[in-house]
Specification:
Blueprint: H1 15-32, E1 47-48, E2 60-64, E3 70-72, E4 75-76, H2 82-95, E5 104-108, H3 114-126, E6 132-134, E7 137-138
Parallel strand pairs: 1-7, 2-5, 5-6
Antiparallel strand pairs: 2-3, 3-4
Helix pairs in contact: 2-3
Length: about 140
């Protein structure tokens, strides 16, 4: 009797399960990664020993870098004129359903021009924002 030699299929490596495992690992690491909410604007805050108060609504944050450029909620303004700053405040108020923000936090670099800080405070007063605070960093050797 003659047996015919049958063709044997060569084993294949299924790539679909490997892709599934890679996607599951990617999703796992994306979900379990902690994200830091740090501003990309580099400023050197002045030091103080007080602790900020807690607010129920988020305040409007204006950052002033060492050159005197304004950033409203970490977004750079087109120019540094008071009129542009006023329009940015008005746009923020419109986004908050017409409510004025709970306050204004000015994050000014320690080397920022004093006039830039005064301009922000003046524009805020004209926009109806009465609670203004200056952001600082804690003293290094505070007791």
């Amino acid at each position: 009797m003659r047996w015919q030699r049958g063709f044997r299929d060569e084993p294949e490596l299924g790539i679909t399960p490997l892709i599934d495992v890679v996607f599951l690992l990617l999703i796992f690491f994306m979900i379990s990664t902690t994200f830091k909410d740090d501003s990309q604007i580099t400023i050197d805050l002045p030091q103080a020993s007080s602790v900020p108060a807690k607010e129920d609504r988020p305040p409007l944050v204006v950052t002033i870098d060492a050159q005197g450029h304004y950033f409203v909620n970490d977004r750079r303004l087109v120019n540094d004129s008071p009129d542009t700053l006023r329009k940015a405040f008005a746009r923020y108020t419109t986004q908050q359903e017409g409510r004025t923000p709970s306050g204004l936090v000015i994050r000014a670099d320690g080397q920022a021009p004093h006039q830039a800080v005064i301009t922000v405070m003046d524009v805020a007063r004209r926009a109806g924002i009465v609670h203004v605070s200056l952001a600082t960093r804690p003293l290094e050797n505070a007791e």
